[in-house]
Fold this protein.
Amino acid sequence: MKKYKDINIDLKDRSYKISVNDNIEDVLFSVVSKIISRPKVFIVTDENVAGFILPAIRKILDDGGIETYVVIIPSGEKSKSFSQLESLIKELLNLKIERQDTLIALGGGVIGDIVGFTASLIFRGIDFIQVPTTLLSQVDSSVGGKTAINMSEGKNLVGSFYQPKAVIADVSLLSTLPNKEIISGFAEVIKYAVLGNKSFFEWLEINQKELLDLNTDLLIEAVSTSCKMKAQIVEEDEQEKGTRALLNLGHTFGHAIENKMNNSGSNILHGEAVGFGMCLSAQFSNKLDFCSGNDVEKIIKIIKDFGIPSNYSDLNTDLKANEIIDIFAKDKKRKDDKNTLILLNGIGKAFIQEEVKDTDINDFLISVGFK
């Protein structure tokens, strides 16, 4: 029996539905046909997804009488760039896309980000639908309207808030992913538990093995719970002027580590960096007497048990504390030369801590192994 869970995200005239399911064939045409203004869509995907998932998506839409045009871009974080953005827009214009048309972002977080940003720019804004194919994008980047590209100075520094018309998350698509990608995605699932849902944290502890084995029922529960939490936060603070910043738990440390490692030839996935960043956030919270040592141990343990880097030695590279601080200087949340971090009073109790000095972070990073 096929299973579905729908989550509504209430943003007044920009509201939309997140459909979490295990069979996109039963959902896709129904959702798309209600959004498009003419029987034509433009699918943007990457080289990896094009070989596995794209043919089935095209067949569903073609069988329903919806004409599909496809643009395939290179896989990986390097596609979140000005040059790729320009190339994508040019290709869509050459395909004679019109203001009334709809884009479909078929892929992981990179695809969702660049397609969403493109949709916000082309003709000053057209409709787009998110069809996330990775766990990380299903629970995080496809929901909430953040779109962006990277610069050499840091991740997601140029972008817009632009909401999709729908999100369709089929957990069965996760079976096409390499195991490392699946594990990386669970970092974002754990994040929701750590920042605001202790009972969800305990549920993840109990069901960790079956989740990693891609148990469909449990995946639908994990994805829908994560999306519900994100929807509630986005409804309260769509443009991150307050509580939405809580969703950055682990990301300030994680983005800096990801930026440094990937630009220096050492590879780390976004979820891996965020998972390790959560460990650092928990440890730093403990150092400042906000979070108990027992809760820190539990957070580190669950991240380690899911196979995500949980301490400095797991990175298998040398990182300098001062270089991480240099990247912090370009963080979007920085104010008056001081840092804003998401810290913890315990599991499920995240809060925003402003005016954190570079020197305090530098000393902490050195204390946990950074050079």
Notes: The longest strand covers residues 154-161.
